[in-house]
Amino acid sequence: MIKIHMLNVKQGDCFLFERSTSKSDRLTMIDICCGNLASEELMKSSEAMESSKPHGNFGMCKKPTNPFSYMRNRYLTNVFRFILTHPDMDHMDGIRKLFEDLNVTNFWDCGIRREKPDFGGSPYDEDDWDFYDDLINGRVNDVTVVSPRSGSKGKFWNQDDDGGSGNGDYIQVVAPNEDLVELANENGDINDASYVLVYRSSAGPIIFSGDSNDNTWEHILDNHTNLVENAAVLFAPHHGRKSKRSYEFLKVVKPRVTFFGCAPSDDLAYSGWNSRNLVYFTNNQCGNVHIYPDDKTVSVFIENGVYADAYTDKNTYQKDSFWYLDTF
After folding, report:
1. Interval 279-302 mean pLDDT
2. Predicted confidence (pLDDT) at residue 44 exceeds the cutoff of 60
């Protein structure tokens, strides 16, 4: 079984990737946000707007998910690899609790080094940064730190468990390379060296984009076009927010479906997708999302049944308590 979870974590990222087969039962977690979300916040956010129009405001960003509660409810307590795409706090909000409360075996370090942020008035927990600093400097016991780069081969992620010629968990690293890491460390634009990962599913590439920039995508298209073209699923860079990105990479990637995170509607880069007639959905519409690659298609189930009813004219049914949205 292959199952990808996109969690609804405010203006941040958190993905879970289950690949349960006869050869592998390893859980991958990519980034974390809302890990310090208090139960009081969850209770206050329980009332969200519900639109009856497919493109209305469904208010699910007002109902964020605490990753730990979500994982415990699904008995997901062993994380084989935690991949931090880059050290921005909206991608590591709750990292200390993650490693203290759950069993995490491996930590992926993209290689970016930056000064400690100013936490005065910050919504984030300074202890998370201090724990991250301990991680990258080898001060956390019983955790293996690895730093795969663009095109790297390694046991478990894209080689057999013994380092043989198999595909491991079918995960390819397409960014960053050493030049991008060096550039990010020099100019301070750490998004240039964000991890970009591709899961090579039978349905097509599934791309986790982190906060990748144009420099990142120039490298990817120069070196790994075959791994990202005609993608099945794209998780939009920087949660889909507008930025300096040109989105020219979409001409090659051409995702069948894209998912945006949470942000005010005016801040999301809808035009990059609309101008190319590409299908996309947001956490604000869907809430949490489950994606199942199966043979040549991916089936999508979502938390918000109201949106599922508004969007689809098919017979809506449930799987793992989520509502069927569509197949792409």
Report:
1. 96
2. no
Determine the structural domain holding residue 148 and report its residue range: 2-327
Query: Hey, how many other C-beta atoms are within 10 angstroms of the C-beta on 14?
Result: 28
Flag whether pLDDT at 22 surpasses 60: no
Q: What is the pLDDT of residue 95?
A: 98
**Does residue 182 have a pLDDT over 60?**
yes
Q: What is the pLDDT of residues 116-150, one digit of tens each?
A: 999 999 999 999 999 999 999 999 999 999 999 99
Q: How far apart are CA 238 and CA 268, in angstroms?
A: 10
Query: Domain tally for the chain?
Result: 1
Edge-to-edge strand list for the sheet holding 103-108: 144-146, 103-108, 78-83, 25-30, 15-20, 2-6, 289-294, 297-302, 322-327, 318-319
Residue 203 identity (one-letter amino acid) = A
Q: Domain containing 56 — which CATH number?
A: 3.60.15.10
